[in-house]
Amino acid sequence: MNNREKTVKQKPTGKGGGTPLNPKPRKEIVIALNKRAYHDYLILDKYETGIVLSGTEVKSLRDHKASLVDSYARVKNGEIWLINTNIAVYKLGTFTNHEPTSSRKLLMKRSEIRKLDNKLKDKSLTLIPLKLYFSGPYVKVELGLAKGKKQYDKRESIKKADVQRQLKRVKV
After folding, report:
1. What value does the mean pLDDT of the chain take?
2. Could you tell me the pTM of the whole model?
3. Residue by residue, what is the 3-state secondary structure of 9-53?
4. How far apart (Å, rounded) are the C-alpha atoms in residues 113 and 109?
């Protein structure tokens, strides 16, 4: 047998354009960041979730009209809800427009939700949205499992950041 006969070329599949073993990476467009979360909380773990939105909410997000300040996530009845996230009203929307600060359901596997719920009950932890972004055509939320920082922890992290900046300046 010839070696050429044994090798099989992989054909591109579907809309992605990549091979099954090497899928085409999705383009990530950041809509909103929660910079305050990194200052106020110690982020222990990160999770990527989907989010249930209406049409006008997606259109408003395409205009980058969202804010994650003062928002958090909570587990209720085996589901995760994003609370107090502000998605501005779509300016061209009619009577079908959405409520800007309504609670929005997050999409996650049940097993992951159960694990998160157990972690939240055991320790004094909270779920904070860190980033809202488009992954291809889908809107995703990056949640952080976080623990609140004390005042002295904040001062310590500021000092560390200053030292890192000074070291960078010296190296350059």
Report:
1. 82
2. 0.72
3. CCCCCCCCCCCCCCCCCCCEEEEEECHHHHHHEEEEEEEEEEECC
4. 6
Segment 149-165 shows an average pLDDT of 82
Q: What is the pLDDT of residues 15-39, one digit of tens each?
A: 555 556 666 777 888 898 988 888 8
Tell me, what's the pLDDT at 6?
Answer: 41
Distance set, CA 49 to CA 30, 84, 123 (Å): 14, 17, 22
Q: Give CATH for domain 27-171.
A: 2.40.280.10
Q: How far apart are CA 87 and CA 66, in angstroms?
A: 4
**Contact at 8 Å (CB) between 67 and 132?**
no
Q: Output the DSSP codes for the chain.
A: --HHHH--PPPP-TTT-S-SSSPPPPPEEEEEE-HHHHHHEEEEEEEEEEE---HHHHHHHHTT-EE-TT-EEEEETTEEEEES-EEPPPTT--TTPPPTT--EEEE--HHHHHHHHHHHHHTT-EEEEEEEEEETTEEEEEEEEEEEPPHHHHHHHHHHHHHHHHHHHHH-
Those residues with Cβ within 8 angstroms of residue 38's Cβ, 6 or more apart along the chain or in another chain = 130
Closest CA to 43 of 161, 141, 147: 147
